[in-house]
Specification:
The protein is mainly β. The chain contains 2 helices and 9 strands; from the N terminus they run ααβββββββββ. It has a single domain, classed as Lipocalin (Beta Barrel). Helices cover 14% and strands 50% of the residues. A hairpin with a 4-residue loop joins strand 8 and strand 9.
Amino acid sequence: MKRIYLFLFIAIITISCSNTFSETDLAKLNGYWEIEEVVLPDGTKKEYKINPTIDYFELKGREGKRTKVMPQFDGTYRTNELSESFIIEDKEDKTFIKYTTDNAKWEEELIELTNEELTVKNEQGIEYHYIKPEPFSIK
């Protein structure tokens, strides 16, 4: 009987430690995301109250691109048409966004992804906390 409890305990721990995301969850990445806060490895936090740029993610399957856009006063977004290609990859029970540009390659671990919040951690241990931006316009 003890073996059954031990097995169940290990199974629950293994499942709870997994931080991979389903295709349904990954679809939530699509759209506009604004950095709200950055947390450094030592726990220091930097809040972003106003952002001149917002990240636009477009994901199809497990491939996509991220583009920096600038909100305009009329509610539209302006872009310089530069984007970073990425793929989503699961490894070691974690989900990573792996970016590629002409000049660099890097990856970020996907920590949290809901309809309203996105958190990623880069290779230096810096966490980026995003929220969906509030639409606005001045007419």
